[in-house]
Write the structure tokens for this entry.
Amino acid sequence: MTDMNAESYVTEDGRTIGGVIMEMKNITLRFGGVTAIQDISFDIREGEIRAIIGPNGAGKSSMLNVISGFYVPQEGEVWFRGRRRAKMRPYQVARQGIARTFQNIALFEGMSVLDNVMTGRLTRMKTGLAAQALWFGRAEREEIEHREKVEKIIDFLEIQAIRKTPVGRLPYGLKKRVELARALAAEPALLLLDEPMAGMNVEEKEDMSRFILDVNDEFGTTICLIEHDMGVVMDLSDRVVVMDYGRKIGDGTPDEVRNNQAVIDAYLGVAHD
Amino acid sequence: MPEQFLWAMEVMLNGLMAGVLYALVALGFVLIFKASGVFNYAQGVMALFAAMTLVGLQKGQVPFAHLINTIFGTDVHKFGWELAPWLAILLTAGVMVLFAWLVQRFILQHLVNQPDIILFMATIGLAYFMEGFADLMWGADIKTLDIGLPQGVNAWIDETTFNLFGYGFFIDNLDIAATIVAALLVVALVLFSQYTKQGRAMRAVADDHQAALSVGISLRFIWVMVWSVAGFVALVAGIMWGAKSGVQFSLSLIALKALPVLMLGGFTSIPGAIVGGLIIGVGEKLFEFLVGPYIGGATENWFAYVLALIFLVFRPQGLFGEKIIERV
């Protein structure tokens, strides 16, 4: 049995999990009178796949929106890379190295797949506006450099064939993959996936699971994902947070969570035998 | 060749040139509408304000001279210098950037997530405020704008067409200059939006705000940038109209002519603004020439609006606009 409290450890399949990269401390989020998240704490470690699960309305998406800066919690602290995060706007969070996808897909529908993925590199482009206008050489070199990285990601996610297609014309499953590609293009320190498999058929789900595992394996990307599908989550993740009615009711490895009575009652239903 | 046909052709060419100016104003509308969903009623007044500022700076006019003189009992009107046209244009562009920032900081920022109609009302308010402000700042008299653009009939075209058809076309040099400048401006805009980082960010914001935020784009920065670009387009339009018919307050009314242009071309399409402007320009001049004499003339005042109305019935999204599909 591996010691998961150590500074870093190696998983059974040979991946190295490092120290804590993100820590949520006593987060409480309210919308008017409704408490969406109630005093939740958990951490995410470098290189791991961390899942947040829970029934509908448990506050999973709200939690993800807190991490990515779309919501600002009333109480609690967010620590990222050993520093407490000040109140931030979503674009500032993105520039810190936290990329995300959305449950309902937020792509630039009018732009090609390639352009969409290229926007993921915006935070990494250095050349300023004036330099781009006056000094084409440098801007062009930079563009080519970024283009190479992007092409690699496009190859990796097997969407070469649709590179030039406007995103609006793609089927749902492929859109989800393009959105993942765009998030990956930022080479994020933390990748947030909001229900990456929602609305997919079995085959698409299997593809997506494989890509998530490969991304984590290949690039060592830390991933935090929200998912409905219990089976998928248990196969994918290293550790799981379980939420119900805005509270945390379980936290641990998939096996621990599976055997946690509170989780079984709340999420999987009470056994009748 | 029959004379009637030659005249019609000359009218058409002149219509194309006039259309370029309509297209320039419409372009400013489209840029802002695409990026922020705001229908900027003040675009025409921005052109007026830019032109007045340009003349004022070039001629070394003291801003708010009337106000200063009334309050302090002084009698200052001019600084006594004259700036080179390029320097005055550069400074005016700077003023338009500052204006863009002020609009963002003091108006739009406080109206985020408000319904479109509220934002529209805000720009109507802005338009009237600016009109008064421009009056206060630079005075209400009609100014001549002279930055050395060529004026008068183009002799070469006159001669060539005379030798070819036996009838010389009258094309104003200023119109030709306006066309060339507008074409350059459009090419520059396309290069900017397709090949620069900020251009890509601009297109991204125009497409989806939430997604843009998630890839690290600051909406505020992009909005200031878009208003600056629209301000610059307004400056170019202001220069051309001002050089043609003097800088006066009726300049802000050209904004209204941009409305039918937008209905024709589609509110979200840059090529649409250009083609729409050209169609309206050519259409109203030709209509006046061909039909005008039979119905008492002055058709230029209403032709564009009627054409837009017909378009609204048969193709509400315009020529190049996105088709509106409502899923039930």
About this structure: Chain A has ten helices and twelve strands. The two ends of chain A are 32 Å apart (CA to CA). The mean pLDDT of chain A is 87.
